[in-house]
Specification:
- This protein is mostly beta strands.
- It has two domains: 72 residues, SH3 Domains (SH3 type barrels), CATH 2.30.30.40; 251 residues, Porin (Beta Barrel), CATH 2.40.160.
- Helices cover 11% and strands 53% of the residues.
- The protein has two helices and 22 strands.
- The protein has an eight-stranded antiparallel β-barrel with strand order 8-9-10-13-14-15-16-22. A five-stranded antiparallel β-sheet has the order 6-5-4-1-7, with no helix packed on it. A two-stranded antiparallel sheet has the order 2-3.
- A hairpin with a 6-residue loop joins strand 18 and strand 19.
- The radius of gyration is 40 Å and the shape is rod-shaped.
């Protein structure tokens, strides 16, 4: 009987000892840290994978959203949230994008153990020092983080310049100048300059698909035109030939933009071109002159791609610098051409397509030519007839201002 009682007492003592150990461990660990309530004050708060402005954006919360922060690390709050399709459940938000709704708890310092005096002499009683209250210095205002560029719709207005290939009208203008050189027998002074360079201006709207990907839609306008003069001096008379080819385009663009890092982007897409081609050629010898004029319109598909910098000025505006390459060779131009000379008062008008062909004057020599004709040229000396092409392929530089919504 005594042995049974002893065993029961031993068991009770063991249970009590385990309970006391658990209580002591709980007391040593201290109370669990309470979450910090914070509220989003920016239009859109980006949550990043790491506490860095260059880290990947994993979530976004709109203005007024209430979040729970586990703790604060420097200028960043570590927050917890429900997982989405990415599977992330925590991330960091910068303090400039939120405001704390309650006091941030401070980490308590562990109490120091008081060591016993080394000497056994009676302790000298000294008057207690009166501690002066510590006045906390207000923290300096935190400078706002750089403006966030990801995940917001935007409109970009830009201007710049481009250099295009030009196409058949440039070649035909030089062909006529060479024809008169052969017909007159005098080398021309000057040359025909091609229409290749122009100013451009336009706009582009971007709609976010994700923080890094945007769908783009926009349009721009550019026109290249160049007037040239070639003189043929023979005795007291100087013949002249002038040529002014013109190329105009209004491409309507659709594409995608990708931001591999926050301020650098790559973009590409397709464009549908509404184009116009024109020519104005005139030859003059003393009182005699000839003049050809024409204007035709065409449409066609092209492709483009580019890269650039998106430099934020604040949360709404950015400066954009962009370089773009384009490919667009368009034919099938329809329009009206006229011919007039000094020997008649009647203008010859033809409505039809803009054709390009080689005009042969001898077995050794032929000259490229382009005019609007009501039907395909088939007279003597005409070779290699085809529809004329306007080539808008080339390079362009743009500078603009981006407005975010």
């Amino acid at each position: 009987m005594k042995t049974s009682n002893m065993k029961n007492k031993g068991r009770i003592f063991g249970v009590v000892l385990i309970a006391l150990s658990a209580v002591a461990a709980s007391a040593a660990a201290g109370p669990a840290a309470a979450p910090i309530k914070i509220k989003v004050t920016a239009e859109l708060a980006n949550v990043r994978q790491k506490p860095s402005i260059g880290s990947v954006i994993i979530r976004q919360f709109p203005q007024g959203e209430i979040l729970e922060a586990v703790r604060k690390e420097g200028e960043w709050f570590l927050i917890k949230f429900e997982p989405d399709e990415s599977g992330a459940t925590s991330g960091y938000v910068h303090e400039s994008l939120v405001i704390s709704l309650e006091e941030i708890p401070r980490q308590e310092q562990p109490s120091r153990l008081v060591e016993p005096p080394l000497k056994t002499e009676p302790a000298v009683v000294r008057p207690a020092r009166i501690e002066k209250p510590v006045t906390e210095t207000p923290a300096a205002p935190v400078q706002a983080a750089p403006a966030e560029t990801a995940g917001r719709a935007s409109l970009t207005l830009y201007g710049g310049g481009n250099l295009i290939a030009g196409g058949d009208l440039n070649t035909a203008g030089q062909g006529l100048a060479d024809y008169y050189t052969g017909a007159i027998g005098v080398a021309g002074d000057g040359k025909i300059s091609p229409a290749r360079m122009s100013l451009l201006y336009g706009g582009e709207f971007a709609l976010p698909l994700s923080p890094q990907f945007f769908i783009l839609a926009g349009a721009e306008f550019h026109r290249a035109e160049k007037s040239s003069l070639v003189s043929y001096a023979r005795g007291s008379v100087t013949d002249t030939f002038t040529a002014m080819p013109g190329l105009q385009a209004l491409p309507v663009k659709l594409g995608l933009a990708f931001y591999p890092v926050e301020y650098f982007f790559v973009k590409f897409g397709a464009a549908y071109y509404f184009a116009k081609a024109s020519y104005d050629d005139r030859y003059a010898h003393d009182k005699y002159w000839q003049e050809w004029q024409g204007e035709a319109t065409g449409q066609g598909l092209g492709f483009w791609g580019g890269l650039g910098l998106d430099w934020p000025l604040d949360r709404t505006f950015s400066l954009v610098f962009e370089a773009t390459g384009e490919y667009a060779s368009i034919s099938g131009f329809q329009g009206t051409g006229t011919y007039l000379d000094s020997t008649t008062t009647t203008t010859v008008t033809e409505t039809g397509k803009l054709y390009y062909w080689d005009a042969r004057t001898s077995s050794q020599t032929s000259y490229p030519t382009a005019f609007i004709r009501s039907k395909s040229p088939s007279e003597a000396g005409v070779e290699n007839v085809r529809e004329a092409t306007a080539d808008f392929s080339g390079l362009s530089i743009r500078v603009g201002i981006k407005i975010r919504f």
